[in-house]
Amino acid sequence: AAEECTSVLELDRKHTGALMLRAQTLVTMKEYHSALFDVSRLIELNPSSDAYRDLEARLKTQL
């Protein structure tokens, strides 16, 4: 799933659905740094989203 999301993001860097799915996939693979990168990008695109900020906080505890 992460590879497919990366392909979508190569075409549209602002595709929030692909960013979120890739972040979730990376979390299941325990690739927390990479997931945090995607979540940070989501926050840049949607600065008012509490859900993304909560996810970022949870990921930071995994580092």
UniProtKB/TrEMBL annotation:
Gene3D superfamilies (alphabetical): Tetratricopeptide repeat domain
Name this polypeptide is given: Uncharacterized protein
Organism: Nymphaea colorata (pocket water lily)
PANTHER family to which the protein is assigned, alphabetical: TETRATRICOPEPTIDE REPEAT (TPR)-LIKE SUPERFAMILY PROTEIN
